Amino acid sequence: MNSRHIPGRRVARAACALGLVWSVAASAHVFPRTQVPAAGATVSPPGEVRINFDGPLEPAFSSLVVDDATGKQVNIAKSGVDAQHQEVMAVALPPLQPGHYTVHWVAVASDGHRTHGNYGFDVK
């Protein structure tokens, strides 16, 4: 065996291992797949905000909060993860006045990895 090729093999093996670790780590996070109301949408007053994520959520640590244009939280009810579809989280809303609203979400995957974000929609 030629020793000049061994370091190349080690580098190739290390690169493959790193790629595998990266793909496993990346798949551990959950992100929104669909949102209702959708990001940037103008809608009639919705009765709830619902986000469908690309993987199951940890209910105890995942949440949705909806703020009005002044930054005041408008949802009174606590958000929850659907028991039958653990990739879905929703929060009930009171009747909303016309204006801009921001949804803040925190999603913790069932393996403990946390992601978060926000998006806005308008009520006509």
From TrEMBL:
Residues 33-123 form the CopC domain. One of its GO terms (biological process) is copper ion transport. One of its GO terms (molecular function) is copper ion binding. Residues 1-28 form the signal peptide. GO terms for cellular component: cell envelope; periplasmic space; plasma membrane. Gene3D superfamilies: 2.60.40.1220. Pfam families: CopC (PF04234). It is found in: Cell envelope. InterPro entries: CopC/D, CopC_dom, Cu-Rt/internalin_Ig-like, Ig_E-set. Keywords: Copper, Metal-binding, Signal. This is Copper resistance protein CopC. It comes from Caballeronia concitans.
